[in-house]
Structures are given as C-alpha cells and as structure tokens.
Amino acid sequence: MSEITIIGGGIIGATLAYELAKRGENVIILEKRFIGSGSTFRCGTGIRQQFGDEANIQVMKRSVELWKRYSEEFGFPFKQTGYLFLLYDEKEVEEFKHNIALQNRFGIPTRLITPEEAKEIVPPLNTKDVLAASWNPTDGKADPFKTTIAFAQEAKKLGAEIHEYTEVKDIVMENGEIKGVKTNRGLFRTSIVINATNAWAKLINAMAKVPIKIPIEPYKHQAVITQPLRQGQINPMVISFKHNHAYLTQTAHGGIVGGIGLEYGPTYDLTSTYEFVKEVSKNFIKIVPALKDLLILRTWAGFYAKTPDSNPAIGRIEEINDYYIAAGFSGHGFMMAPAVAEALAELITKGKTKLPLWWYDPYRFEKGELRTKAIQMG
C-alpha cells in the first residue's frame, strides 16, 4: 500500500484525509502552519446548491447530503437556513428561472418567491426595487473551525497522520515518478501526492514540474462581522448581485457576517482595507437598513484561489505518477469539500467516481475548453 501525501491542511485536505483513511489508505497531511489556517478559517460559512450548471449542482447536492450526515455523526453544527438571492431586474429573474428549473431537475427544491415572501423569511429586508427572489431552504451554513477540526480528528482516529508547521520545500522526482516530499522537517517518502493548497497550488505545481498550465491565482477578498442583531432576523444567507455581489447572514451569536465583491490581486497580501469597510457598509445598509446602527467589530481577509472560469481544477496529472490536484475553488472550496473529497478518494482508489469530476478537468485550460462560469459572490 502506497503512502498518500496531501499537501495542504484546509477543509479539502482534512476531508480528503478522512475519506482516504476510511478506505484503508495510509495518509499524511503536510500543513505549513496549522489545520485550517489558509483560506478555510477565513471563509464566509455558506453552503449552497444554487448554481447555474449541471456539474456544480450535482456536486453540491451530494455535498449537502454529506454535510448533513457528517454533522450528525461527528457532532459539528450544520444548519439548513437557506440561501436567498435577491433579484432586481427582468434579465436577472429570467436567468434565475433557468437556474431554478435546472436545480429542480436534480431534486433541489429551489423556487422563485415574491418580495413579500422574502420579507417574511428576512423581516428587516429592504424589498424596495426587488422584483423576486430565488429561495432554497435546504442550502445552509456551517462553522469552518469546528468542521475542519472534526474531519481532521476523525481522519486521525482512522490512522491518518497530520504534520502541522511542516512546510513543503520540494518534491523529489525520478523519471516522472514521485519518490518523496522535502520539508523543513525532513524528507517524507511517498509515491502519491495530492495538491490541496488552493491559493498556493501554483507553487506546489512548480515543485512537481507539472507540464501543463493550470492558471490558479490568489485574490484577496475581505469579510466583516458586526455587533449582534436580535437573533433570528437574518437566518439565511442573503445575496444581492446588484449591491456589489454582497452576501450576508447572521451568526449563532447574532452578529452579521459577510462581504462584497471587492477584489485585489493576484496577491498574497492579507491587509484589510478602508475601501472595503466603506463599500461593505454602504451596500449592506441598502439591503438591510437596520444594520446602520451596528458597529463593525472586525474585518479580515482571505483568498479566493481563482481560475478563469471560477471552477476548480480537480484530477490526475497524467504525465506524473502519481500526482493529483484539488485546488482553485474560487471561493467554493468549503461548501464543496465533502463531495469533492469523496469523489477524489473514489477516483484514486477505484479509478472512477459517479460525480462529474470531468467538469473540473485540469487540462481544460490548455485545451481552451473553459466551463460556464460558476455563480460567485463576495
């Protein structure tokens, strides 16, 4: 049995380690800081099935099933509080009608609702100029800290090793075969490597001398949390593309967490900006006027590891024996993790999977076969 080395200890690495260990594989995670310290612990908590293409809808339907199952098995909170997309013009309404029909085809209960119905779901919502809303009550949110730690702990129970503060320096290759991974803590002998480093994926690809171009670049996105609002006011994730691709929801403690589509990069800088505070305040207040009375408690930044079509690169690099990638999630890694981990574990151990991983083919960029752009906000 070969040692499988996962580089990157975020939610993708943690769920992958669990799925592979569950299948009896020897697995180690190499993480340069601590588990979840990259993009995962900086994410906006949302988990949705409301996409506009068949592949992402199928993956996210399975992911929600797994989020529900594992939250019950492992004891972390996953709440199906829904996603509410606010629609402001006829073109947007028509686009979402198409998306809803596609989602319904796969058994996802999204429906178009009136502004009045939207206000019943989110009482402080400003519905002026809202024509309709896309509502799916089975979408939800989870705590990235508790979930990632839970998957890592469950993987360890099954024999997986997790090496934190272990930075990868190089990948040892001989005649196109992986022999080991050099780190600041010595050499780890292995024959299978999975690049799950997301924003840092291009650096690991360069070490492995990946012969194809996989354009994944880190873009800084920021988030905010406010003072508490009375509980139960904004239970779902509320999305408005009109207001600079804003997303916001209420945390378990009552504060409002969210962000907008202000983007910087490519960059590895994570400094918060005044421009973000100004823009997020202006746009949030238009969606929920009551937020004008709340103080901002904290802002922070994380990475969207973006590809040209906002879909990840997932699969095997044929020219290297055995090198896989699962990165470039463009802001969707947290929500997709359980299904992607299950599918990639099946691919590695059985050579096939039922989920449409072909959509995320790492070779599509060189072939000029970009996918339909995945719906993205924040």
UniProtKB/TrEMBL annotation:
Alphabetically ordered keywords of this record: Oxidoreductase
Signal peptide boundaries: none
One GO cellular component term: cytoplasm
InterPro entries according to UniProt: FAD-dep_OxRdtase, FAD/NAD-bd_sf
Domain FAD dependent oxidoreductase intervals: 4-347
GO MF term set: oxidoreductase activity
Matching SUPFAM superfamilies: FAD-linked reductases, C-terminal domain, FAD/NAD(P)-binding domain
Pfam families per the UniProt record, alphabetical: DAO
Name of the protein described by the UniProt record: Sarcosine oxidase subunit beta
Native organism: Palaeococcus pacificus DY20341
